[in-house]
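question for whoever is on the cluster today: can someone run the full assembly for these? two chains, 733 residues total. i dont have access anymore since they changed the login thing
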Amino acid sequence: MALVNIKINGQPLQVEEGKTVLEAATEAGIDIPVLCHHPKLPPIGACRMCVVETRPGVLQTACTLPVSEGLDVQTESPTVVKARRFVLNLLFSERNHYCMYCEVSGDCELQSLGYRYGLDHFDLPAYTTRFPVDTSHPYILLEHNRCILCRRCVRACSELAGHNVLGISQRGISSMLTADMNVPLGDSSCVSCGLCVQVCPTGALSDKKGAYVGTNKECEAVKSICTNCSVGCGIEVYKKDNHLVRIWGDWEAPINNGVLCKLGRYEPVFEDKERVTKPMIKRNGSLEEAGWKEVIDIVREMLSKNGVVGFASSSLSNEVLLLFSRLLNNNVTIMEDISNPFDNSGKLSDILGSDKILLVGIDLDKNFGVVGSFVKRAVFNGSELILVDSALNSFTRYARLHYETKDIDKAVGNALMGSNPVVIYGQLDSKLTESLARIKGKARFIWLAPSANSLGARRLGLNGKFEPREVGYILAPYIERLPEGLSKIIVQTSYYSEEIEKADIVLPSAIWLEEDGTFINLEGKEQKRAKVLNPPDSVKANREIISMLLGE
Amino acid sequence: MKKITVATDWLDGCSGCHMSFLDMDEKLVELIKLGVELTATPITDLKEPPEEGVDIGILEGAISTNHHIEVAKKMRERCKILIAIGDCAVFGGIVTMRNYFSVENLLKRGYIETESTVDGKIPTSPEIGKHIRLAKAVNGIVRVDYYIPGCPPRAEAIYYTLKELVEGRKPVLTGELLRYD
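^ ran it for u. tokens below:
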């Protein structure tokens, strides 16, 4: 790439051709304020905050101005500062920007620019039109009175998340952020990925729960990974006094690039299932609270007498699965079906580069939302989606072709005509496996495994070759259904379910945010999950419980 | 020592800014030692700035009634330097939330329709100010020389501003002293 010589504030710089003045300045450590611009979004130069002086009296937006040979810009000259103050005055005079009753005060980018340019009053009379507040969405609050129409959310929703829900209706002073064809956000096609909230510079879009608990500045941020599905997205968890406040997508995470889905961003914050907080023993037909020492002694005795068979969820870390397997002399099986007949050769980025996407039997708006984002983006870039699902599927409207499951051969036949096809699949029966095998040499295969560490469990060889025994030890954060045919049941779990009433021993375990560990993500890469929160008193990490039983 | 006279008053506000003024604590004593003399203020309970005028006038609260217009104008006439303190005086602030409603509906809601009110009545005494259509910042009615935003404004910001003025400098709020919340 050719280099061009430019000057920023008199400082000579050599910059790659094609970069913008803003990028050049950022790389050189020169701070140019932005509002509508976001480093992960395409620039549109709408707000004029980033104006720089290219010739005396000539202002241009640094976010859209490409560098050129001999360019000489000033980023904080009196003309520039005057223009920025004027822009801020205009922004503050439109709609309601009174910070004292805004939940985002402290995190707001408009506010911090007001401080930076010393705005101690408004030069223009405040606007008095009342805009609606849209509270229809279960997780997101849309406060139009705080909106500065920067369109960050619109671009995030379309360019990054691929959902294309948000847009701007009307023109000029009547411009409004709009969902779909002007319907309430809660009634729209929004899939609650929440990226719009993450990029909003003001209090226009905020989390219904987190916004009232604390600002990001008041919280401690911990980088981790989401283990609510097998994708393994990078997250940034904000916590305050051992309370979960909000979860943001990690912009630096190579797999998801900041994008999350409802499962990763909102469900953990709104989680309301009752926790198991005390060890319990069944006495006279019902579970009673007991001390840790007592239950550990009883379980150790059970383990020493009978052979015990273990059932583990593959949502648990490599470390926990390995220890559990050791505790039970390899008599451990995984509760989910983790069979995969194909090589997991694809990466999520392959979806963007594909010309045909064969999606088999999964509704990506319901599960694996981030994969859904990649598929939607690919479709908007011209890739053809071939959907195979007998059930109703939210991706039907994105699909070029939609086949019943029985017509898998036709779907595969079409995908074979592509030069760069990708197959996305979950559980397969023998018929589907046989058909998909036809495209094996040509396509990249992306397996959406049932749980966060299914790939890790497979690597550990936990594939369920065990002798049936009487006592079962079940290890899972939430137990929907217990295995049949057991006379004694030990359960190690985090949440109450009706099923655990059948157990003889219940060991309360930490949830995913409370225990670290390593996981194999969808692309086969090992990732580390951090411990973000401390578990409640009397609840222990899975690893700790098993170590106690091992006498370590 | 030359006295620097200060008068303060409140308009449509909550008196929180005057609490911040008192929150200067020992710094208020320091200012008094530097020559500041509090004349008419809600704190001294004297109702009007002295006729002979003061050096510094301070107003808290937004302009919401014809009464406030009168008070603001009188303060402006009788002070050399006028400071607006707090978000209501500086920006209009929380008081301007009522601009979304007509004055008639505002009074009806406040005096008759509130859930705890029985047989409510809108007061009509001529001694009470009449609401103007739109509540506004003090600079919507009179010229303001210095602004200390904040809800409430930080005591340190009030101290800094007065100290700079007393010592003959022009105060410019920066950093932690410039806050909108």
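summary bc i know u wont read the tokens: The two ends of chain A are 58 Å apart (CA to CA). Chain A touches chain B at residues 98-102, 105-106, 111, 114-115, 118, 120-122, 125-126, 128, 130 (CB under 8 Å).
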